[in-house]
Amino acid sequence: MDYFLTEEQQMIVDVARQITDEKIIPQRAELDEKEEFATDILNEISQADLFGLYIPEEYGGFGGGCFEVVLALEQFGRGCVAIATSFAASALGAYPVLLSGSEEMKQKYLPDVASGRRKAAFALTEANAGSDASAIQTTAVLDGDEWVLNGTKQWITNAGEAQIYSVVALTDKNKGARGASMFVVEDTDPGFSCGPKEKKMGIRASATCELIFKDCRIPKDRLIGRQGMGFITVMKTLDLSRPGIAILGVGLGQAALDEAVTYAKQRVQFGKPIISFQAIQHMLADMAIEVEASRSLVYAAARHIAAHPKDMSKASSMCKVFATDMAMKVTTDAVQVLGGYGYMRDYPVEKMMRDAKILQIYEGTNQIQRNVIGQELNKEYTK
Amino acid sequence: MNIIVCIKQVPDAKDVRLDPKTNTMAREGVESIMNPFDRHALEEAVRLKEQHGGKVTVISMGPPQAEAVLREAVSCGADEAVLVSDRAFAGADTWATTYTLGKAIEKVGEFDLVICGKQAIDGDTAQVGPGLARRLDIPYVSYVRKITDFLNGAVRLHRLMDDGYDEIEMPLPGLLTVVKEINDPRIPSLKGKMKAKKLVIQTFSAEDIEADPKQIGLSGSTTQVVKVFAPQFKGERAMLEGTVDEQVEQLLEKIEPIL
Fold first, then answer.
1. How far apart are CA A85 and CA A76, in angstroms?
2. Among the four residues A242, A366, B34, B55, which has the most C-beta atoms within 10 Å?
3. Domains of chain B
4. pTM of this prediction?
């Protein structure tokens, strides 16, 4: 379907598509098998100027927004969700600085993120604080001109690969969610280290580790925004980033559909290509409908978010739930269409199915997203 | 350093068909691409510019549609683009092409290095690079797989050979033709694409480059294509039967006359 992209937006799609087809797809199986971070491919993406899509021009970026990032991520998601996640996580790590950082902070960090010279990461989750993010235990205490951080973050995407970390820590334990603040921690800061790489079911070419803060001392001016505003920045960041996860579902669903249709046309059983059987046709038709419906919703949500920065939550959560639940279903169906071959690692759909699962979990589980939508509905109908 | 890269627009090799009646290449519906070896030539030029400074000018001789590959080259890092295009150039063989490109490069001006792909995938002659060096009266090295150093107006490089490689030093200005092993060409960048979209491409006609009409196009060509045809497939297939030993015997009987 034609989504009437501008000429510039079409260029973003073309560049991202070429990287996906020529660099990502030929290497994805090997990177997944070896659980290897795709450094070269990410360098290629930075050389193509895509790391700065959402960063204003005054900080060396392209000056686009949520929708431009979505267009690039759709292509990367079609190629490999692990590599796309590494790319998206850098944006997630930079959004707090962009949304709440001081002018000096923006000038210090955003140009490097835009050029891809330094990658960013976002650190909220802890062992006892997942869906209940307010249960975090990492603390930051002001000591003279420095903040001293202590605690451990868990399952942090890009950990060990990023140089800039946006970290949420409690600056006042007695105030609950209002006692949280955000900080920029650099990989070279004293007292900061990363744990071993986690072994995951899917997105195995992405880096996921613990971050350990042991009397980690950072300058006072690394506080992002104001003290106690940490969770407000977190919520805005996630509202802005979730369409990026949603579109990974669309790209992945499209890739699974492409594989399923291609296979169904060539696989002959009972003397006919299996695409001639209605049982298969209907499965493929449903997959195509769901992928396109998801794409429409994500595009609409991303455009809405770009135009209405104060009214992001519901649109953001709705597209995330819909498109990622779709991705799980469509990739599972793609494996079914390919049958025994689909279950083998020789074909790409088994990786797609493994990769799909994380989309329903990270950046807020789909259950939490439904809570958000429910709460927004409650508010809307109370007015 | 000023580098000139010669690029050619060619039909996508994945899609080449001959018209069975006319025996000419079917052009309709066939996508045109930048000659793959030229992508490596361009990439090497852009990398040299990034390391040593200077400017990369891409030049292509062809019909007006060849502008597309020039814009692609700019999106991949070239600074300027020249299209050498005139109806009078039509039908040129490699002899007339090197003359034309040579005149065009003289008009572009001073340069340190000309880089070409080792050959185009349509004509496959590998003559234009070396021929062009002769026209420009500069040294050349073909099949370059690595540039190792620049020093005192010379370039050191590796030339790919069947049994290894030669290490060669060539004075500048000079010309290189490169093989695909030399680098991994980059994907166009977003900023490059935006620049390419806006760029005004200079077009040189026969008159602009002060070409001698007798030396260009079909009349300037020393060779002419008399006939193009698809070779007949003459392979035969035979199934051998019996025990393994019997099959080996039969096979030997068949291949002995050829050995």
1. 9
2. A242
3. 2-224 (3.40.50.620)
4. 0.87
